[in-house]
Recover the amino acids of this structure.
């Protein structure tokens, strides 16, 4: 944040990229959008849609890494080391790699993409990008049953319960809020980018159980 004080808007995108190493594209796009709103810059529709896809790719890859980590934990009270799932890794890792391949395909990077620019993107998506995204979706769908099964084995019910009233009082967000019965999603409720145009397709997963397992299920 101190470095941002000594940089111009364009240079600041690189620093925003470092705010969240699991969602770097989201951070740099968010700053670019803020700058564009301040300066009254209209972004081409294709760039808006590509940015939206980049945000969803980042969401998916970050969530899968967290789920894969939880899937390696031993059940409570079980001695020994976690089951790492063999050479292929725990459930979710192959799906996350597929999403990172999509990110690398458009940006050249898997951690710090540096794809956003004030007014759009650094360059267009490659011709096969849509096919890569389709493959990543299929891989994720294929791995979801194993992820759910692993979560049910490793995360017991009733841990760290947060009621709807408590979630509201503590102003939690994301999967934590939705697992406690709060039907909230900023993509639908306060949309930016192209989210308003796909609001009807955004399925908001919620639960009223409010425990740790519910939070993983919602995620």
């Amino acid at each position: 944040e101190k470095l941002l004080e000594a940089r111009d808007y364009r240079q600041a995108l690189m620093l925003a990229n470092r705010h969240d190493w699991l969602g770097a594209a989201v951070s740099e796009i968010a700053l670019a959008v803020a700058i564009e709103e301040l300066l009254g810059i209209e972004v081409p529709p294709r760039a808006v849609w590509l940015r939206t896809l980049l945000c969803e790719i980042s969401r998916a890859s970050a969530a899968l890494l967290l789920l894969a980590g939880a899937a390696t934990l031993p059940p409570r009270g079980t001695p020994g080391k976690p089951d790492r799932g063999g050479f292929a890794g725990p459930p979710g890792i192959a799906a996350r790699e597929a999403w990172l391949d999509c990110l690398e395909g458009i940006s050249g990077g898997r951690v710090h993409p540096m794809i956003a620019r004030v007014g759009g993107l650094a360059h267009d998506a490659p011709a096969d990008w849509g096919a890569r995204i389709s493959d990543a979706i299929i891989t994720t769908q294929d791995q979801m049953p194993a992820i759910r099964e692993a979560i049910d084995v490793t995360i017991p019910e009733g841990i760290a319960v947060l009621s709807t009233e408590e979630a509201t009082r503590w102003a939690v967000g994301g999967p934590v809020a939705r697992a406690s019965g709060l039907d909230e999603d900023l993509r639908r409720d306060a949309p930016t980018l192209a989210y308003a145009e796909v609001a009807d397709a955004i399925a908001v997963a919620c639960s009223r159980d409010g425990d740790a397992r519910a939070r993983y299920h919602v995620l």
Summary: Strands lie at 116-117, 120-121.
